[in-house]
Amino acid sequence: MSPTSGPVAFKASCPECRARFELDAGALRLAIGGSRRATFYSFTCPECGAAVRKPAGDRIVELLTGGGVSTLRSV
Question: In sequence order, what are the beta bridge partners of 13?
Answer without folding.
Answer: 20
